[in-house]
Write a structure and sequence with these properties.
Layout (H helix, E strand, L loop, with lengths): L3 H11 L4 E4 L6 H9 L3 E4 L3 H15 L3 E5 L3 H16 L3 E7 L15 H5 L5 E4 L6 H13 L5 E7 H4 L12 H4 L11 H12 L4 E5 L1 H5 L3 H11 L3 E3 L19 H7 L2 E5 L20 E6 L16 E2 L2 H11 L15 H21 L10 H15 L7 E6 L2 H9 L8 E3 L9 H14 L13 E7 H5 L4 H7 L5 E6 L8 H12 L9 H6 L14 H4 L4 E5 L2 H13 L5 E6 L27
Parallel strand pairs: 1-2, 1-3, 3-4, 4-6, 5-6, 7-8, 7-9, 9-10, 10-11, 12-13, 12-14, 14-15, 15-17, 16-17
Bound molecules: adenosine-5'-diphosphate and magnesium ion.
Protein name: 2-hydroxyacyl-CoA lyase
Enzyme class: lyase
Keywords: Lyase, Magnesium, Metal-binding, Peroxisome, Thiamine pyrophosphate
Length: 608
């Protein structure tokens, strides 16, 4: 006689689920154990937040829903972080949770909480199963719904009496072939609008293709690369759209981002929303007369902010781009000689200026007894990684979160393959990084980026974590050590959020000597104490790795950083944390370069 837990595990296996990200307790532990018995990998985390983040991005990387299993009440509350992250980023995520027995409702039962009411507004649907018969159908529909259409989160709640219940003697599991779902059906664009969009592109003075993470999720790289190649239109990737067309492509306008957005007159927007990441498609960042052709799977997205509903194409990006390519087959963009500075020249000169500035920062050697700058540290890491693994091979998957840590790394580490750069995303969620590392490892173990290529050597996951971002789920280092995930994690340690603060250094020194420091700071400063952005001065984060058998390096100098990077890259058996002391930037203005201000043009981090 099957138990509820067995029926749940079977439904998941029959849907093709190969990995579950979770954290168990009563009653969901039975589900996890049955899943393991069926050959599903269960990755056990230290906090539901991290496992829900991991499952959400696993869906993005593999193109199939990520599955997350948590306990009820507090477990669900923690997992809401990943539900929000999946809905903010449009990642397909199925969250499963246990809850108290149905007979205990309103009595104050163990971890009792009405998760359905709580989650209904934040998911594509949230449902509770109330009979063992309904389990396979509910799981299948939840899996299908989070995946089909615009991806997002769904939720299924299993009361303890359902998980632990026994099916009736005549209960029959559905045949596996009736459970398995095909990939989402793909719609193509309205032919009349495709024609209109093609004509508009042909007439453009300064056309631009923007490649978003929706294009990466749609696996439209072949179609988009062909379109770019054929039409010679410059392209600009969003942070997670990087690599759909290789960053090394000569038409990549990333280093001239501001100039490209400001001057483009016709923009083909492929799987990116006109939200804060793209400055709403509006002035002052965009030309007020720019015509935007939005291509999206979601009709609701068309016409939003500066979008023009009459130019919107609802459809799968790969198919729509092929349709456009057919209509543009005999066209190649050539700037008109009578239009002032041609768009490509404008982009080239802006890129040259920005790249020269970045290079200057990267090549400046660190003076003795001075902390590394972010730029210099990244330059050393990049050189070392390149010498171990040529960027064309696409062996490295980058994860990056933090403020400066993420902003600066984005432009320094180019990508030639899609879905190999994961960052804080649409929600700018800090704390996703370590979960993302674990998910990337799981995704590339099972789903190599190129199914036709041998997965040898396996992908190496390299993360750049701000010291603050790292702290949100630092304990997941133990998870990595436990599963022998040989990730290489750099903690960019400037002793603070955005930047460090000398007060934290003072506090640390006084702690060391157990005296009140009486240095040059004014009494007023000491009264104020630590700032809201301060973190412990030079905390030894690498010891989180060594404490569980991983490798830890504390580095201050260029040589130490180079050696630690090499050792960490070559390590194949356990996690490595490299704690890099970087310039704290005391007194610098607090800002997130991406949001920028009026003066963004003068901000060296703004050119991405
Ligand atoms: P970015 O962060 O790169 O700006 P967004 O997350 O804002 O990207 O936008 C991604 C968009 O891609 C979403 O609006 C989503 O609906 C869309 N999308 C996802 N999958 C597909 C697909 N297969 N075809 C077309 N659009 C898609
Ligand atoms: Mg910091």
């Amino acid at each position: 006689m099957a138990t509820g837990a067995q029926i749940i595990a079977r439904a998941l296996r029959d849907l093709g689920v190969t990995v579950i990200f979770g954290l168990v307790g009563i009653p969901v532990v039975d589900i996890a154990e049955e899943a393991i018995n069926l050959g599903i990998r269960f990755i056990a985390f230290r906090n539901e937040q991290a496992c829900s983040y991991a499952a959400s991005v696993y869906g993005y990387m593999t193109g199939r829903p990520g599955v997350c299993l948590v306990v009820g009440g507090p477990g669900v509350l923690h997992a809401i972080a990943g539900i929000g992250n999946a809905s903010g980023n449009n990642f397909p995520l199925l969250v499963l949770a246990g809850s108290s027995e149905t007979t205990g409702v309103t009595k104050g039962a163990f971890q009792e909480m009405d998760a359905i009411t709580l989650l209904t507004p934040h998911t594509k649907f949230a449902v509770r199963t109330n009979s063992l018969d309904s389990i396979p159908g509910a799981i299948r529909n939840a899996y299908r719904t989070c995946w089909y259409g615009r991806p997002g989160p769904t939720f299924v709640d299993f009361p303890a009496d359902i998980i632990q219940g026994k099916a009736a003697a005549d209960f029959k599991l559905p045949a596996p072939e009736n459970v398995l779902l095909p990939s989402p059906p793909k719609p193509s664009g309205d032919p009349a609008t495709v024609l209109k969009a093609a004509q508009l592109l042909r007439s453009a003075r300064a056309p631009l293709i923007i490649v978003g993470k929706g294009a990466a999720y749609a696996r439209a790289e072949t179609a988009i690369r062909e379109l770019v190649e054929r039409t010679q239109v410059p392209f600009l990737p969003t942070p997670m759209g990087k690599g759909v067309v290789p960053d090394s492509h000569p038409l990549n306008a990333s280093s001239a981002r501001s100039a490209a957005l400001k001057n483009a007159d016709v923009v083909l927007l492929l799987g990116a929303r006109l939200n804060w990441i793209l400055h709403f498609g509006a002035p002052p960042k965009w030309s007020p007369t720019a015509k935007i052709i939005q291509v999206d799977i979601s009709a609701e997205e068309i016409g939003r902010n500066a979008g023009n509903a009459e130019l919107g194409l609802i459809g799968d990006i790969g198919l729509v781009v092929e349709q456009l390519s057919t209509k543009l087959s005999n066209w190649r963009y050539q700037p008109s000689p009578t239009d002032g500075t041609p768009f490509p020249s404008l982009l080239a000169s802006s890129a040259k200026k920005n790249e020269a500035k970045a290079e200057k920062a990267a090549l400046k050697p660190t003076p003795p007894n001075t902390p590394l700058t972010f730029q210099r540290a990244y330059h050393i890491i990049k050189d070392t990684l390149n010498s171990l693994s040529p960027p064309e091979d696409g062996q490295i998957v980058y994860v990056s979160e933090g403020a400066n840590t993420m902003d600066i790394s984005r432009s320094i580490f180019p990508l030639n393959h899609p879905r190999q750069r994961l960052d804080a995303g649409t929600y700018a969620t800090m704390g996703v990084g370590l979960g993302y590392v674990i998910a990337a490892h799981a995704a590339y173990d099972v789903y190599p980026a190129d199914k036709n290529a041998a997965v040898s050597p396996p992908k190496k996951i390299v993360a750049f974590e701000g010291d603050s971002a790292f702290g949100f789920s630092g304990m997941e280092i133990e998870t990595m050590a436990r599963y022998r995930i040989p990730a290489l994690i750099f903690v960019m340690n400037n002793s603070g959020i955005y930047h460090g603060d000398s007060t934290s250094e003072d506090a640390w020194k006084s702690l060391q000597s157990q005296t009140i420091s009486n240095d040059t700071k004014s009494e007023e400063d000491h009264k104020k104490g630590l700032r809201s952005t301060s973190l412990l001065y030079e905390a030894r984060y690498e010891q989180l790795a060594t404490m569980c058998g991983g490798k830890g390096h504390f580095v201050r100098t260029e040589k130490e950083l180079e050696n630690a990077t090499r050792d960490g890259f070559l390590e194949s058996n356990t996690v490595t944390v490299v704690n890099v002391v970087v310039e704290p930037g005391v007194g610098q203005k607090i800002q997130f370069a991406w949001q920028g201000g009026k003066d963004e043009g003068s901000n060296k981090q703004a050119k991405l």
